Amino acid sequence: MTHLDADVIVVGGGSAGTSAAVAAGRAGASVMLIEAGNCLGGTSTAGLVATWYASMDGLGSVYDDFVAMLDQFGAREDSSFGYGGMFNAETGKLVWQLLAENAGARVLFHSTPCAADVSRGRVQGLHVFSRAETYRVSGRFVIDATGEGDFCALAGAQFAKGDPDEGRTLHMSLVATLFDTGKPVTPYLPPDLEPIETEKDLPGLSGPHPMADGRFYLNMTKVMGHDPTDPLSLSAAELEARRQLARVVHYLQRTKCPRHMLGSTGSRIGIREGRRVLGDYVLTEDDVLGDGTTFDDGIAVATCQIDFHSLTRPGMVGWRKRVKPYGIPFRSLVVSGFDNVLVAGKCISGDQVAQSSYRMTPTCVGMGQAAGTAAAMAAARKLGSIKDLPVGELRRTLTDAGVELDPAKHKAFPPTAESETPDREGAR
Question: Is the pLDDT of residue 16 over 60?
Answer without folding.
Answer: yes
